[in-house]
Design a protein that fits this description.
By secondary structure, the protein is of the alpha/beta class. 34% of the residues lie in helices and 32% in strands. It has 3 domains: 5-73 and 142-169, 2-Layer Sandwich (Nucleotidyltransferase, domain 5), CATH 3.30.420; 76-138, 2-Layer Sandwich (Dna Ligase, domain 1), CATH 3.30.1490.300; 175-299, Nucleotidyltransferase, domain 5 (2-Layer Sandwich), CATH 3.30.420. It has 9 helices and 15 strands. The strands form 4 sheets. Strands 3-2-1-6-10 form a 5-stranded mixed β-sheet, with helices on both faces. The longest helix has 24 residues, at 243-266. The chain binds adenosine-5'-triphosphate and magnesium ion (MG). Residues 11-14, 30, 186-189, 209-211, 232-233, 279-281, 283-284, 315 line the site of adenosine-5'-triphosphate.
Length: 325
């Protein structure tokens, strides 16, 4: 039987799990987290979250052979870099220096890793000249915390990767020559990831997400913000299309457009051709509509980058990409 890998992404609102085989995504679970389990992108109690993961896998009848997890962006640095051709041993020595402007603790407190995206050849001699790399650094203590959490949940954790690598795995399915923007419409933030084929180019974060809508809906409908959250998800009384909510969608679309213009300015040779959406906010039809009208870049269905038709796949794209590692 084909090996089943479960990819996990722990958001601030929900845990996303995608069970994947070579043939595609078999099952997806987007399970809201207990209140206060993750604050400002950090897991508050690894033990409590381990118990929650264990219960969720049991309750949702998830069966898989091994797991992989996305490391949160606040705890894991990822960057594209070019360097002269060198051996693995030489890269191991050099990578810590490439991260010196990003990391805050001593350099030997981090794990470093890289993936070779391309080998650039000399135009005259055709000899390999430069390596085009995607590299990452993460505190060893963070990796240990995650390992222990999964062990406590009874799950065999095989890999832990940054979100940029997970999306690279998805982008491997796309045309090498086209440029895409993956937009994650999350609870606390909206994040843009620009890819040239499978090569990660750039990211941008808009520091508010779907939770902003709760106070607005609460104000307009004279209800508690907590109740507003459930109104919003169920689109109760059409609240997702309130003019005050549409104004938020428009502001978001404008911010995204500014980031796209900036990307175009810095990369005049690359034309952004497609948008892919992920995150729970992708379920809000009115938001999709406003983005599509403002950006004038086609929003593609996620089936273009992933096989399998599991329900809720858009919210779990990061988890699915991570399972493909
Ligand atoms: N069907 C839906 N209609 C409207 N909103 C939805 C729907 N499903 C989920 N959401 C909302 O989308 C938001 C983002 O959900 P998501 O599961 O992507 O959050 P997250 O990954 O935990 O957040 P973050 O990435 O910011 O840490 C949440 O506020 C959630 O309430
Ligand atoms: Mg998320």
């Amino acid at each position: 039987m084909a090996k089943k890998v479960a990819g996990f992404e722990i958001g601030s609102y929900a845990v996303h799990i995608a069970v994947v085989t070579k043939k595609g995504v078999k099952k997806v679970v987007n399970e809201p987290l207990p209140e206060g389990a993750v604050r400002e992108g950090r897991i508050v109690s690894y033990e409590a979250l381990a118990d929650f993961l264990k219960q969720t896998c049991k309750k949702r009848k998830l069966h898989f052979d091994e797991a992989s997890v996305i490391l949160p962006s606040g705890l894991c640095f990822c960057r594209r870099m070019q360097c002269p051709v060198m051996t693995h041993e030489q890269l191991t020595v050099n990578l810590p220096y490439e991260f010196r402007d990003f990391i805050t603790a001593e350099k030997d407190q981090y794990f470093y890793d890289y993936a070779v995206l391309d080998v650039i050849k000399d135009e005259e001699t055709n000899e390999p000249r430069e390596l085009d790399l995607m590299s990452a650094a993460c505190l060893k203590s963070t990796v240990t915390d995650y390992k222990n959490m999964f062990r406590r949940a009874g799950i065999k954790l095989k890999t832990a990767i940054p979100i940029e690598m997970a999306f690279t795995n998805l982008m491997s399915k796309t045309d090498e020559l086209s440029t895409h923007c993956l937009i994650d419409l999350g609870h606390t933030a909206v994040r843009l990831y620009m890819y040239n084929g499978r090569k990660f180019e750039n990211s941008h974060v808009v520091e508010y997400g779907m939770s902003t809508l709760d106070n607005i809906i609460a104000d307009v409908m004279h209800i508690d913000p907590f109740v507003a959250a459930s109104y919003r998800e169920a689109d109760h009384d059409g609240c997702q299309s309130l003019p005050e909510c549409v104004e938020v969608y428009q502001n978001l679309a404008n911010e995204i457009q500014r980031a796209v213009y900036f990307f175009r300015y810095n990369n005049p040779d690359l034309e952004l051709e497609h948008i892919h959406l992920s995150g729970g906010g992708a379920n809000i039809a009115k938001l999709r509509e406003v983005m599509s009208e403002t950006l004038s870049i086609p929003i593609l269905d996620c089936s273009e980058i992933i096989s399998g038709d599991a329900d809720g796949i858009e919210a779990a794209l990061g988890a699915a990409g991570c399972a493909m590692q």
